[in-house]
């Protein structure tokens, strides 16, 4: 039986970008702990597969097709989730993308696209979900940063800037919303085996070998490695944890 400290039965979670990759790993963790899930994404085929996966875990899951860079679309998404489930307890801001170019080659529209998708969307979703999170009595926000919140990379200019911003945004929200009993934390994934990083391995020569050489765990991460941290940061077990940025990286960020 799930400990009451980690029991999410009756809770409702929104996971942006929850139809694949790390987002799906996070959503699976929450579903296994009993939370009902709203999967937010733009690819309807992937979302349908995700909610089928989550539904097999004994919870209610819905897909909401949404462009998280569009404030009106996000407002409609929040309204639908509240109407469908009656509440919002957990918001995971996971939607993200990257354009791999050095800073002198990156165009302004490419910069804006990455910042809007990775950082501004977290602001919009959090702002609009705030009333429901406050009303829940113990809201949880989890923002997905990156090891690029700590390190820089020549090929991740806008991505690194957006993920560094995620950490500072997390801290600001944690301070602002503590009186409302809303905890706000960030997860910093390391090198995880996803569609996004498979593309990076094709574009960046030697990346695979360098990652394995620096990661003490000796492997790339798997999306299911995020189930536990998702449950912890969404549950009463983390009620006195706020404003943190927790690496989930197999030791990559502490390797000398």
UniProtKB/TrEMBL annotation:
Domain of life of the source: Bacteria
The keyword Oxidoreductase belongs to this UniProt entry's keyword annotation: yes
Ranges for domain Ketoreductase: 11-180
Name used for this protein in its record: Glucose 1-dehydrogenase
Keywords of the record: Oxidoreductase
Keyword hit for Oxidoreductase: yes
Gene3D superfamilies in the cross-refs: NAD(P)-binding Rossmann-like Domain
């Amino acid at each position: 039986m799930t400990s009451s400290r980690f029991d999410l039965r009756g809770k409702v979670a929104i996971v942006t970008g929850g139809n694949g990759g790390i987002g799906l790993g996070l959503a699976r963790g929450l579903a296994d702990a009993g939370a009902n899930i709203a999967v937010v994404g733009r690819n309807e085929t992937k979302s349908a597969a995700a909610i089928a996966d989550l539904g097999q875990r004994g919870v209610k899951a819905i897909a909401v097709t949404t462009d998280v860079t569009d404030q009106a679309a996000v407002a409609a998404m929040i309204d639908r989730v509240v109407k469908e489930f009656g509440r919002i307890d957990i918001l995971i801001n996971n939607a993200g993308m990257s354009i791999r170019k050095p800073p002198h080659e990156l165009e302004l529209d490419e910069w804006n696209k990455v910042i809007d998708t990775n950082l501004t969307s977290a602001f919009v979703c959090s702002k609009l979900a705030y009333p429901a999170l406050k009303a829940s009595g113990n809201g949880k926000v989890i923002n997905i940063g990156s090891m690029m919140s700590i390190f820089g990379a020549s090929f991740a200019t806008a991505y690194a800037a957006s993920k560094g911003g995620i950490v500072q945004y997390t801290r600001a929200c944690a301070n602002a919303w503590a009186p409302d009993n809303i905890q706000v934390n960030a997860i910093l994934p390391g090198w995880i085996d996803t569609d996004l990083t498979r593309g990076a391995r094709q574009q960046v020569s030697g990346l695979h070998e360098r990652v394995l050489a620096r990661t003490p765990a000796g492997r790339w991460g798997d999306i299911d490695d995020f189930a536990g941290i998702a449950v912890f940061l969404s549950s009463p077990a983390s009620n006195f944890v706020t404003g943190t940025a927790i690496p989930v990286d197999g030791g990559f960020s502490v390797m000398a």
